[in-house]
Specification:
It is a single chain. This protein is of the alpha/beta class and 198 residues long. 54% of the residues lie in helices and 12% in strands. The N and C termini lie close together (12 Å).
């Protein structure tokens, strides 16, 4: 049976945002939502990593550079907004919950405790725990400062989101069942025709 994305009577297709800090699992959940709801997937993390590669610097160095040069974050945000206007996409992004507050149909924030997230990243990337701890701490603090300075957004606040879930003590499948169920409920409430989901 062919995959059909949710659609409203005006032919609009949904925009779903999954935000969260590194190691929270946001990319895993965003990809699965895109697959299950037959939507495209966009991650701003890939855009940021691509910029770092092109410039020949680390993510930490690019974060520091972005503190002095707002054009880096603004370029990422512009690309995100343009893609969201087309609809039919799940966006995996730290900032999209705020940037797309009037565009996204569903905004989800996934989180976990800092030590758990650092362990997940170190395990996933096969890197020393102390190295990941420093890099992640610097990166998150840099993002918090930049977003507060450039936009006035406090990324520690959760009021921009429809669903906030902490998966420190939850497994991937438990967390995803909650997220998927909520997204289906919210899309139907917004008038989207959602096909049968497995």
């Amino acid at each position: 049976m062919p995959c059909r994305a949710p659609k409203r009577s005006d032919n609009r297709r949904p925009v779903i945002v999954v935000s969260g800090p590194p190691g929270s699992g946001k990319s895993t959940y965003a990809r699965r939502l895109a697959s299950d709801f037959c939507l495209d997937y966009l991650t701003t993390g890939d855009i940021f990593r691509s910029m770092a590669r092109e410039m020949g610097i680390s993510l930490e160095e690019l974060s520091k550079l972005a503190e002095r040069d707002p054009s880096i974050d603004l370029a990422i945000d512009k690309e995100t907004v343009e893609r969201a206007k087309k609809g039919g996409v799940v966006i995996d992004s730290h900032l999209a919950g705020w940037v797309l507050s009037t565009t996204a149909d569903v905004r989800i924030l996934v989180n976990a405790s800092f030590p758990v997230r650092v362990e997940r990243i170190a395990s996933r990337e096969g890197r020393p725990l102390d190295e990941v701890l420093v890099e992640t701490g610097v990166r998150e603090f840099s993002q918090w400062m930049r977003f507060k300075a450039y936009y006035g957004y406090d990324t520690q606040a959760t009021s921009a989101f429809d669903l906030v879930i902490d998966n420190t003590m939850l497994g991937v499948e438990e967390t995803y069942r909650v997220i998927k169920g909520y997204v289906e409920y919210k899309l139907r409430a917004l008038g989207y025709e959602v096909g049968r989901l497995v």
